[in-house]
């Protein structure tokens, strides 16, 4: 028999004493820390039927690896790593605050999407408060959330890959490039809005996460534009894009005017800037 | 388009470094943006020019300390890796 060949999957007890040049025969002792991925099945397989032995031959009986000391070591290391990361993450990102932004339900998402594409005819844009904290998005359609921007961002990246594919310009690197580029533009937009807010010295209760949410809302419009472009061609793309620019513009003005508590906001000084920036960024993509 | 996060980091680092290196006496005084040139009084709204001047001054103050070492290291990394 060729010593370099993998051992036969089914071996009886008579084979256990046979010295194999490639690895130790650990079937007799059961579990051992030296087992690799191609290790022979433990002794349990010799007693089972042929089909189950063949099925479990590659990895042993299901769950056998959980009994090894290496697994327990790995589990302990993994849990310590997770707690370490969680502790560090809790310092930088306010996790409890993030949960507020993901408290959405289907009705809210539907209404918000309708608002993003058609913001006219909505009577009241004020966010309802409950003892000085904003109500969760589940109960108020005007509250910002992070679920829609996150999903829209990922959908946009996938759709961009699809659009590139229909033009035969797709490669796996291009998907990562689009993702990285979109993330960089998003970050730049949020930072420039923060800088503008600082320079104009308006007093507002907009947190950076709120600004991230508002910046992410424009991806819904971009998705609509891309889908229209894929289905209807160039003209459909431009028509849908200009309509979504206009609707995001109106949406931003009406939402943010109430959030910026100063006279400049009442005049709409900052609102058109933000709305126009959104429109321009949508056009760039 | 190739506008990646790394290029954003590069651009921001270079801009911050430029602001830190900017010599106030020689350049900003003539334009009237010097930080000791009496911008607004008490109780008045600062305005954009005053805010920008303060921003430039604070960036310079922050970068003069450990920021210099940090930016030197980052610049060497950026120049060495393209």
Automatic annotation (TrEMBL), chain B:
GO CC list: COPII-coated ER to Golgi transport vesicle; endoplasmic reticulum membrane; Golgi membrane
Main location: membrane
Alphabetical UniProt keywords: Membrane, Protein transport, Signal, Transmembrane, Transmembrane helix, Transport
Top-rank taxon: Eukaryota
Gene Ontology biological process: endoplasmic reticulum to Golgi vesicle-mediated transport; protein transport
Signal peptide: 1-20
InterPro entries: Yos1 (IPR013880)
Pfam families in UniProt: Yos1
Transmembrane segments: 62-81
Localisation per UniProt entry: Membrane
PANTHER family tied to this protein: IMMEDIATE EARLY RESPONSE 3-INTERACTING PROTEIN 1
Role description: Regulator of endoplasmic reticulum secretion that acts as a key determinant of brain size. Required for secretion of extracellular matrix proteins. Required for correct brain development by depositing sufficient extracellular matrix proteins for tissue integrity and the proliferation of neural progenitors. Acts as a regulator of the unfolded protein response (UPR).
Family from the record: Belongs to the YOS1 family.
Protein name listed in UniProt: Immediate early response 3-interacting protein 1
Organism: Vidua chalybeata (Village indigobird)
């Amino acid at each position: 028999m060729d010593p370099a060949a993998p051992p036969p999957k089914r071996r009886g007890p008579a084979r256990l004493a046979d010295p194999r040049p490639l690895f130790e025969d650990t079937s007799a002792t059961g579990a051992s820390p030296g087992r690799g991925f191609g290790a022979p099945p433990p002794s349990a397989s010799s007693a089972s039927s042929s089909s189950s032995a063949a099925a479990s031959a590659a990895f042993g009986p299901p769950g056998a690896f959980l009994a090894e000391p290496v697994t327990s070591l790995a589990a302990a290391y993994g849990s310590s790593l997770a707690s370490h990361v969680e502790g560090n993450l809790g310092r930088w990102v306010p996790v409890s605050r993030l949960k507020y932004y993901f408290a959405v339900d289907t009705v809210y998402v539907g209404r918000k999407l309708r608002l993003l594409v058609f913001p006219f005819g909505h009577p009241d844009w004020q966010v309802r408060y409950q003892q000085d904290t904003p109500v969760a998005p589940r109960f108020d359609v005007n509250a910002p959330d992070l679920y829609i921007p996150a999903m829209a961002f990922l959908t946009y990246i996938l759709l961009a890959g699809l659009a590139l594919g229909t033009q035969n310009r797709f490669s796996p690197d291009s998907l990562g490039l689009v993702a990285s580029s979109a993330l960089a533009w998003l970050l730049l937009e949020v930072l420039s809005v923060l800088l503008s807010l600082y320079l104009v010295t308006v007093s507002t209760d907009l947190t950076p996460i709120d600004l991230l949410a508002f910046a992410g809302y424009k991806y819904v419009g971009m998705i609509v534009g891309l889908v229209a472009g894929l289905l209807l061609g160039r003209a459909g793309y431009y028509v849908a894009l200009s309509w979504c620019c206009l609707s995001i513009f109106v949406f931003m003005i009406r939402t943010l005017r109430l959030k910026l508590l100063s006279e400049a906001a009442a005049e709409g000084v900052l609102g058109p800037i933000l709305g126009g920036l959104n429109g321009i960024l949508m056009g760039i993509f | 388009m190739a506008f990646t996060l790394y290029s954003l980091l590069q651009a921001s680092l270079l801009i911050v470094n430029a602001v830190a290196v900017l010599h106030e006496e020689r350049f900003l005084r003539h334009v009237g943006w010097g930080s000791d040139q009496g911008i607004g009084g008490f109780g008045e709204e600062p305005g954009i020019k005053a805010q920008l001047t303060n921003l430039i001054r604070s960036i310079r103050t922050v970068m003069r300390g450990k920021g210099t070492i940090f930016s030197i290291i980052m610049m060497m990394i950026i120049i060495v890796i393209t």
